[in-house]
Design brief:
- This is Septum site-determining protein MinC.
- The protein has 233 residues and is α/β, with parallel strands linked by helices.
- It folds into 2 domains: 106 residues, Alpha-Beta Plaits; 105 residues, 3 Solenoid (Pectate Lyase C-like).
- It is built from 2 helices and 14 strands; from the N terminus they run βαβαββββββββββββ.
- A 6-stranded mixed β-sheet has the order 4-6-8-10-13-14, with no helix packed on it. A 5-stranded mixed β-sheet has the order 5-7-9-11-12, with no helix packed on it.
- The longest helix is centred in the first third of the chain and has 14 residues.
Amino acid sequence: MPIASQRTMRFLGRSYMAFVFTPEEPLIEWLAQLDSWLARSPGFFGGRPVVLDLVNVKLHKPGMVHLVACLLERGIRVIGLEGADPAQLGPDLPPLLSGRAVNSNELIALARPEQPPAAPPKQQPASLLVDRPVRSGQSIIHPEGDVSVLGSVGSGAEIVAGGSIHIYGTLRGRAMAGHMGNSRARIFCQKIEAELLAINGYYRTAEEIDASYRGRPMQAWLNDNVMMITALN
């Protein structure tokens, strides 16, 4: 009898970008700060992958389960844990991830099964040019370098860059520069009406941006982990 052909299963490794939360003690105050942030930017983390890094807190399994549930109540779904004791984990908690520091040419590795050696990736350009407006609901993500937008960024849209962000129009949405750990990144725009500015994880929401800057060209940068904003004219 002929032997029936059997389809081979494929297991591929992929890299994904995720937000990393690093809670600090006391957790009640940390959750209160998170609630304040979410009140200013509701739904910001909806549908986005989040990793919970527990390196700064000492939690046993019940505490971890409770913290993950508290975040889920806020619309934040945790897909993995870092910095947790493997002996404390179980099927009722997200899996333990082996995250690591990344450079400007890599994404956070959330899953990386063993694979045969591959050819070196093709060199990516250091900057990305977007020659159209970025409309509400759209996301431009470029972890390798700077992003320049020859137009406006609408409310509800976002630009995420590993380097600096240059917007030659009105910024009404969110701009997150230095996303992979670049504290020297800057944000420039011709007219600021932003919902959120962030550099290397440090941010300001619309309510925290001086109203005198509204509608004017501006730049933002970090000075000792404090975001500075100044008008360009």
